[in-house]
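Work through this:
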Amino acid sequence: MALNGRKVTIAGAGVAGLSAAIALARRGAEVEVLEQSDAIREAGAGLQISPNGAAVLRALGLKERLAAIGDRSSGVVLRNGNDGDRVLRLDLRRLRPDQPYYFIHRADLIDMLAGAARAAGVHVTLGARIAQVTLGDHLPRLTLADGRGIEAGLLIGADGIHSLVHRALNGKVVPFFTHQVAWRAIIPAEPHAEPVAQVFMGPGRHLVSYPMRGGTLRNIVAVEERHRWADEGWSQTDDPIAPRIAFQDFIPEVRGWLDQVEVPHLWGLFRHPVALRWHGHGAAILGDAAHPTLPFLAQGANMALEDAWVLADCLDRAGESAVGLEAGLASYQEARLGRVSRAVAAANGNAKAYHLGGLTRAAAHLGLKIGAALAPEAPLRRFDWLYGHDVSGGATA
């Protein structure tokens, strides 16, 4: 095995970094994860694990654990925000009985991955904030904020949208503001909440919500088109009045949820190009460091899981030499580039579809209703290429 004893340093202990650490360690690599925080934790947020992501977790031996901490989705419902009229319902358990979708708290997913990584022998170093990445005719070099230097045998950048490894490979890339912002919040769920993802649509805005943690919590992501700037990232908060005003003409159910939000997190939505270079000089990137995506297809975590598996598999198939390493990294980019580019484009398209107004909106919604009545499986079949694909090919690590 080409990875036996290979020393790998991973920047970032998020979904991408931890899943890559597990996949590499299970193949014999000696893996260290550098995490800038003083603990592996995630701010409160929900996410969706679709069948393609669940397939990777199964391959990593985490199928039962995922089922225990996630809520299996029974469907997706699209509704008009102003009157609640149902535009489309996708019954996932009927249409895809053997391909589960899950709603999960991000912190629970991170805890699961961190436990599996440590069980696989991964060493996690906390409080290791990277200040500089240097690549060239030498092993990758990291300079930490405290002045320490680290030389990496193989460096994997899972360091998110502001990735220093991405910058070392591609230079500085300036994303552009989409003139959309998202508020994120978690509130207590109402008793017996149906495990469906509901999308309430209106001109220039939409709101997505679903229950999680055994139906005890409700995740909310509300998106509005506007010209006022907002920073990228979930660290900033906003006045709870802001989303209430933005969705004041939506149905009482939505307004009632927003009335419960005390401190919403605000996120400016920026569009990033998919990275031109995913690897070079003994380094590679994955997840948001390589292909940030807008949150309109719920594929950020799922694409990161796929990246992790494919990266480890390609490296495992390569030779042990430096030439073999570069060939493995090249095959990883080749295998992933087209698929993630298509997923990013599909997410961009959903943003437009959710925010239609006027006659265009009415015609589009009528078309969805008629289409679903004539061919109930057709709307979901459009995404067979995404949800029906298993990058592991049924293998395990």
